[in-house]
Amino acid sequence: MGMSFLFRHSTGYLNTLGHRVMYGFDCSSLSSPENLYRGKRKVVSPQLHSTFAMHKHLSTSVPGPGIYEHLCLRIKIHVGEEESIFYVHENLLEGMYFFDAFEKDDSIIIDDEESDMFDIFVQWLYTRLFLKQPEIKSIIDLWLFAVRICCPKLQNFAMDGIQDYHRGKRGYMDSLDLCYIFDSAISNEKASKNFCAALLHYQNNYESCKIVRKALVAVPAALDFYLEYEAANHDEDLSSHDPRIRESNHRCNFHNHDDNDNYDCGSENNI
């Protein structure tokens, strides 16, 4: 009995046995990591080993229905102008007031969001992981969508993705991404803008003040946040903090921290 991850139709196809294959994964065979494929080459994902092992144990050792048969009604969701179709179990959307506003007719249309972003949102719903590394724009869109649907855990996950992307691949944020955040972010939202200001602050201190100056000229909306951050974090300890790294000895104003959220980014809230 295989697990059933539900992703959009446009990323899948039917194999010769009539099983749908998504992202190169044969969804009919996901009960074992040995059956995970990407293209023609077999790939075993260490991050999914524990999920496979848990599912295999439950499906072979526990009588009755398997773990994923307890998931309830699937909702059909049309996303974007091209109306990519996703199927998501209804109970995974509980507590997200954005979805509660729709009529319960088993179908939802969200035409003002990008399908690439919604793709990784569905990945997160089922696995709490990125199954493939998305582009930074999709991660930023995911963060903005998390704000829209009032989902702090998704905001934290997306912020982790933004931090890790710039730490491991790009180093610093370019002017286009900076402009996109300040143009797209909700007016009273500060976390993503604070991250941008903190990254510019660190870059100014340790890399190139000329590049930072060019970025602020290109994106004037970022100037107030940058100057505010400079004024509040002028001492040496905070100036040396790399905002791309989640550490326990530094304060954080990029994630959601409250008594009802057990998410631990290793930093204390200073909002």
Give the topology, please.
Elements: E1 12-14, E2 20-22, E3 25-26, E4 37-38, E5 41-42, H1 46-61, E6 74-79, E7 84-89, H2 97-100, E8 107-110, H3 115-127, H4 136-148, H5 152-170, H6 175-184, H7 191-206, H8 209-218, H9 223-232, H10 236-239, E9 251-252, E10 268-269
Parallel strand pairs: 6-8, 9-10
Antiparallel strand pairs: 1-2, 2-3, 4-5, 6-7
Architecture overview:
It is a single chain. This protein has 271 residues and is an alpha/beta fold. Among the domains are: 9-70, no CATH class; 174-271. The protein is 42% helix and 12% strand. The protein has 10 helices and 10 strands. The protein has helices at 46-61, 97-100, 115-127, 136-148, 152-170, 175-184, 191-206, 209-218, 223-232, 236-239; strands at 12-14, 20-22, 25-26, 37-38, 41-42, 74-79, 84-89, 107-110, 251-252, 268-269. Strands 1-2-3 form a 3-stranded antiparallel sheet, with no helix packed on it. Helix 3 (115-127) packs across helix 4 (136-148), helix 4 runs antiparallel to helix 5 and helix 4 (136-148) runs parallel beside helix 6. The chain is elongated and about 55 Å long. 25% of the residues are buried.
